[in-house]
């Protein structure tokens, strides 16, 4: 007669079904299936900088179910102000409404493209937002705001062109020390709000060759809409 302990020890993870009674009962080993992993959903986001001389701060992407990162005509949040004045997207991507996020680590130069992949375990009501700053401005930003991707099928693609926005938190004086990009390497975010204090379409760069003598910018820093080309592809 087999010793039951010696039979069971090497068979961890198996279910035993006994038939009959007593020490001589038959034992049938049935493998236990591991639980199925939760499904994951992934999006590949490709971003191209369409400007001539406006580097874009590291691209940040978020998936969320509700809310917006900005609304035209409304006051910018402190998190959006930080992004629009300094290029730092960390506070926006850490908002409570964000389910998952990803950020590049380097600015996106004029004419260049990047591709980032963002993954979630829940597609219900999924919305995708993307943010970046035009770093050779006082408080200009661009991106996508709460794009519904919940019904996007695997292999399907959405394409967008983005506009330039002004957070309205810092005057567009383009003066020395006020622009964080390579045209000036000046200050980024500060708490003072000395502009209209509402979000609007960006009026564009004036520049010193347009007669704004204090400006550190020139004609090469000008930009037209659109700022970026963005494609969103569901890959999983």
Keywords:
236 residues; mainly beta; Immunoglobulin-like; 6-stranded antiparallel beta sheet; 4-stranded antiparallel beta sheet
Task: Note down, in words, how this protein is organized.
By secondary structure, the protein is mostly beta strands. The chain has one domain (41-234): Immunoglobulin-like. It contains 3 helices and 12 strands. The strands form 3 sheets. A 6-stranded antiparallel beta sheet has the order 5-4-7-8-10-11, covered by helices on one side. The chain is elongated. Residues 4-17 have low confidence and may be disordered.
Question: Summary?
Answer:
This protein has three helices and twelve strands; from the N terminus they run H-E-E-E-E-H-H-E-E-E-E-E-E-E-E.
- What value does the Rg take, in angstroms? 27 Å
CATH class designation: Mainly Beta
- Please state the oligomeric state of the protein chains shown: single chain
Residues in β-strands, percent: 25-35%
